[in-house]
Amino acid sequence: MESKNFLILTVYILILFVSIENIFTLSISYINFENKTDIEIPNIVSRKEWQARPPVARELMDDKPKPYVVVHHGGIIQYCFDVKTCSAIVREYQNMHLDERGWYDIGYSFVIGEDGNAYEGRGWDYVGAHAPGYNTQSIGICTIGDFSNRLPNNAALKTLEALIKYGISLGKISQDYHIIGHRQTKNTLCPGDKFYEYVQKFPRWTSKPIPKNSTTS
């Protein structure tokens, strides 16, 4: 009789243990799922989709998260609010950088349109040609248009912030990154007075960035 009771008790304990383990596993899965949804992934239009020309050459970034994000504007009074128009402008940027400036490719890591899309330039993994002294240690993000007298629209600004957060989640941008304007790296008005005022309000903006030597085109 005692053996039978012991066997029943053992079975009950095993059932209880399995139930608790399943509940714990489900809870962990739910937590992980929730964490993933915290990152808003911006829509990135690939090079193939915007019909990029192939690069002349490429230089791989090192695998360390980048400490800087450099903000640019196109500097031309030319705006876009749909994929077709934005893609055409990004192709113009690439043509100018390749044919007039003799660079290897479009200079920026990403280009943002006021359609709310990010357009893949050199991407996360290849050294850009957008900010002297920072090309090897930054992600360069350009917003299409001239923002001397106005800000990019909310769709573009939201994508800028989402792209930075996404880069951090991928390990491409350091969690302790600093954001700077292009004018902090050379004598230029980029990213425009109005946009630069906005950039300076970012919590991660720094007035004292530290350059490194870089010869990448």
UniProtKB/TrEMBL annotation:
UniProt superkingdom: Eukaryota
Which GO MF terms does the UniProt record name? N-acetylmuramoyl-L-alanine amidase activity; peptidoglycan binding; zinc ion binding
Per the UniProt entry, the disulfide pairs are: 80-86
Please state every residue range assigned to the domain named N-acetylmuramoyl-L-alanine amidase: 56-192
Which positions, given as ranges, span the membrane?
A: 6-31
- Coiled-coil ranges (or none): none
Keyword entries, A-Z: Disulfide bond, Immunity, Innate immunity, Membrane, Signal, Transmembrane, Transmembrane helix
Give the matching PANTHER family.
PEPTIDOGLYCAN RECOGNITION PROTEIN, PEPTIDOGLYCAN-RECOGNITION PROTEIN LC-RELATED
Family designation: Belongs to the N-acetylmuramoyl-L-alanine amidase 2 family.
Q: What is this protein called?
A: Peptidoglycan-recognition protein
Q: Which organism was this protein described from?
A: Apis mellifera (Honeybee)
